[in-house]
Amino acid sequence: MPIITNIEDLRVLAQQRVPRMFYDYADSGSWTESTYRANSSDFAKMKFRQRVAVNMANRTLKTTMIGQDVHMPVAIAPTGLTGMQHADGEILAAKAAEKFGIPFTLSTMSICSIEDIAAHTSKPFWFQLYVMKDRAFIERLIERARVAGCSALVLTLDLQILGQRHKDLKNGLSAPPKLTLANIINMMSKPRWCMGMLGTKRRGFGNIVGHASDVSDMSSLSSWTSQQFDPLLSWKDVEWIKKCWGGKLIIKGIMDAEDAKLAVASGADALIVSNHGGRQLDGALSSIAALPSIVDAVGDQIEVHMDGGIRSGQDVIKALALGAKGTYIGRSFLYGLGAMGEEGVTKCLEIIERELDLTMAFCGVTDVKNVDKKILIPGTY
Is the peptide bond before 124 cis (omega within 30 degrees of 0)? Predict the structure, then answer.
């Protein structure tokens, strides 16, 4: 086993162990992938103010996200097909997050179902919702999340239509994978992954198959999803969903100050500055570049979170410095999952925690809740 010291080590190992179509699904953006790359590279431009001879003892990363105690201001982002990175992937990631003391968010497009996660965890998790044309199905999904004890609903607003990701089209992405000659040859080189998949019954979209009308198996799913994402989605639908849910609501996909103000008006508890990991509008700003103007626009009227490009604890603290009250990791935990299962997700969280803690100390801060722009060099952000 190689020595793992950073998220890049996990990425390299995941690339070796996960079939190409699923690794590419996680590690790609739309069109030229310029926004996908900027999400990470824009963090590197920001520079820290190093402080010395300050008391660095008794540091704490503990804080809250939407009123929920968290071990550090990091949550597991909702990611589709997580259970194709590793058998039972969503269950393993949820267990790792629970043990670590951070929120886990389950995607509508997960392989393991809401009920699967509830059966394998003891604390509430969050559920991410896509708005489909079939509103009765949405009502049932919300009710299933309520029955499962989910403590927040994360409503994604930036997938009314699907961005084009060239790798997915070229690889013929599907779950489970189509048994073409190229796919069979590729999977034969991933024995750990294959053995895991043979040992689980969870290989389809657990929240949808058998729950949505006219979707009884995987063959009918692709046509259903291509027709179900709703281009007519509006803020009136957000109001309806908030009423149906009745609990904590987080709006995901905000990249513009005007939309941030509309999120405040909707009565949501938090918004996530997010460009969907660079998977939707190529050529959009990176999430970290969009964050300051959104924080300025809404102040403390709503809790501002962000995701996109976080590959280290240093990235987390930079987002906090610019006003985020919480962050989300998607690809970082997927690399850990694909590399080493639950152990890999835990390793990812340990790496981010250590980097966040040490960087905070070097910047002369002992409580993560006190991190602000003062830790950054003016002109670098």
Answer: no
